[in-house]
Amino acid sequence: xxxxxxxxxxxxxxxxACNQSGDITPADIEKHITFLASDSLQGREAGSANEAIAANxxxxxxxxxxxxxxxxxxxxxxxxxxxxxVLRNPHAGEDAEGxxxxxxxxxxxxxxxxxxxxxxxxxxxxxxxxxxxxxxxxRGEQERIHNGADDNASGTAGVLxxxxxxxxxxxxxxxxxxxxxxxxxxxxxxAYYVDNPTVDLENALAMxxxxxIGRMVDKKLMIFGIGTADKWEGILDSANTGDLDLNLVKxxxxxxxxxxxxxxxxxxxxxxxxxHADYHRPSDDTEYINMNGTALALHHLVRxxxxxxxxxxxxLAFVEAPGEQRQSMSLDGPTxxxxxxxxxxxxxxxxxxxxxxxxxxxxxxxxxDIIVGIAGEELSDIYAYMGMLNKLKKGQQTTITVxxxxxxxxxxxxx
Length: 415
Description:
Layout lengths: L1 H19 L5 H11 L12 H16 L3 E2 L7 E7 H5 L11 E11 L8 E7 L23 H20 L5 E7 L7 H8 L8 E7 L9 E5 L7 H7 L6 E5 L8 H5 L5 E5 L18 H18 L29 E3 L8 E6 L4 H5 L6 E5 L2 E2 L3 H8 L7 E8 L2 E8 L1
Parallel strand pairs: 4-5, 4-6, 6-9, 7-8
Antiparallel strand pairs: 1-3, 2-3, 3-5, 7-9, 10-11, 11-12, 12-13, 12-14, 14-15
Helix pairs in contact: 2-5, 2-9, 5-9
């Protein structure tokens, strides 16, 4: 009996120690994503009552983890206004008449154990598309909830898991945890934050963004931004102790919130497990999330942050990423039903797959093709592709040109 008691006590102490370590687990990731991507939150559209429920959920966890409120007026929230008239007409001025929506970023600060004023920023957007009025690729007639499990309940779960982990394993540097809203409407929350920071961004060592980290396949992980600091590649490779298949991309900008920080001359990274057929559609649900893969990505990120904690700001100097950087990507025209290969760095836009029954598949486009032209115009990259589609109309007859196994092919295309 005495030995049994000792065994039970030992097991209890081990359990307590594990809980205090803030371990990142697939079960905890699933808990957060299940809540944020539930039908009851109706897609977390920025400015909605359901966005506020999600914001409160994040703030409550920040409080539980011991993060200091770092928003407005000693709260966890930073409010900003969205003008829907500008969303519907990007050329309208900010004074245009339209419904004004009140949205909010969620901001928590973890004090480090050292004396440095330098800090690391970890962020993700928590908003999604609601019922799909802005940005949906769903073309069905029946209105449906867009739950956004991967985009971006997965990244938000990452912020919460890392906040819990580092609150139990405090670094020397401060860590600022940011959950942005308004990303789906044009990086609105992060753009507002960098123009109205609640901490001094001059002290920021780096900003790490997580957007769509929930669909890892074969341990493949894409990380953008390695061109924004000379040390990034070495740091990321040395953190890869779990045999992840890393695809490191130099771009410092793209259609996510790290872009806002890149333009403030802060080294950035964007963790991403690639796009998929459920992107911006009602089918982006929790059941398709790879919880174990998400945990692998977060464990890698923990090892990166541990390395950053040992660096000084002048040791991770900002570098302008090579190539043309863009403020954002937006698509207001028709879509072709293709899945871009975001890691491709050559001419044109390489695709990994096509959706059956959509314009590209009907034209004969195949996964692995590189789209190099539409409507007779050459396309240099994904930005040119999206810009070209914005000029076209649904139902229009035109052409699409692809490279397939080195051969150039032009096909008829009906949008």
